[in-house]
Amino acid sequence: MDNGAVTGVLARSGAGELVQYSAKKTIMATGGFCRNPEMIDKYMPDYSGVYTEVGVGLTGEGLQMGLDIGADYVGHGGTNGILACPVEPGQSKLISTKAMWVNSAGERFANEGGQTHDIYYQVAHFPDQKFFAAYDQAMYDALDSGLKANFDRGLKSGVFAKGDTAAEAAEALGVSGQALQASLDAYNKMARAGEDTRFKKKAANLVPIEKAPFYVLTMGVCTHGSFGGYHVNTDLQVLDTSGNPIPNFYSAGEVCCGSFIYDDYPSGGCGLNWSYTSGRLAGQKAAAAAAQA
After folding, report:
1. DSSP assignment, residue 161?
2. Which residues on neighbouring strands pair with residue 84, listed in sequence order?
3. For 164, phi and psi rounded to 5 degrees?
4. Which helix (H) or strand (E) holds 237?
5. 205-230: pLDDT as tens digits
6. What integer is the mean pLDDT of 249-262?
7. What is the Cα–Cα distance from 183 to 100, expressed in whole angstroms?
8. Which residues contact 143 (CB under 8 A, 6 or more apart)?
9. What is the pTM of this model?
């Protein structure tokens, strides 16, 4: 910095050498910090300990560089996340909307075909950050070979369990077998009647789970992004803690999305749209300012 103005970036190469990049204007676009447990603990404590699938480089150094020179942080403690399967990354098809989902007490807690981000926030606040899916043999038989291989891997590793009854499979995972069996009996009664009177699951996904043997699958949640970062103005200039632009300093993308999205993520694509638009605007504003310098 030069008299409070950003003049570029001082970085370290892969070989450990310091490299200085000088610039009239600097745009920070280094993404979020889901790979930084300490920053999650500080800014999103409700999601401490949640597994993440973001890139290994998203550790928050870019954000911290600005904070170290007085940039203001804004955020509401939220993250972007999805439901997670321990034997398959991403949007695993083993997280079936035709299964019955219960918490660790064996109680059904949501419409399995509902908005997955809403269910993510619900599960992330469970004490163990887990839920469990009940399958029967008919559901297993309907899987393709790749999903069966992953399913079998889950059984072998002990995160999935098999039993002559659903209660037996649940007990193998530390879930109340009596409670899960009661939940399944009630679920099957609604499925046979064709109406989910509790959570309004669509009839197409409401299929009886009654062909032995039965399976219970451990599931969880994982983060896909952090909602927090630099406080920026409409020109994408990074603001200091007094609300003034830090000279020559701009930002774009997830590293400054704290005021764009609140605590939750109601529809896919919002984060990408913010990245596209903020990146374009930050580039335009920084280039125009540089040309006038």
Report:
1. E
2. 220
3. -65, -25
4. strand 237-239
5. 999 999 999 999 999 999 988 989 99
6. 85
7. 9
8. 94, 151
9. 0.86
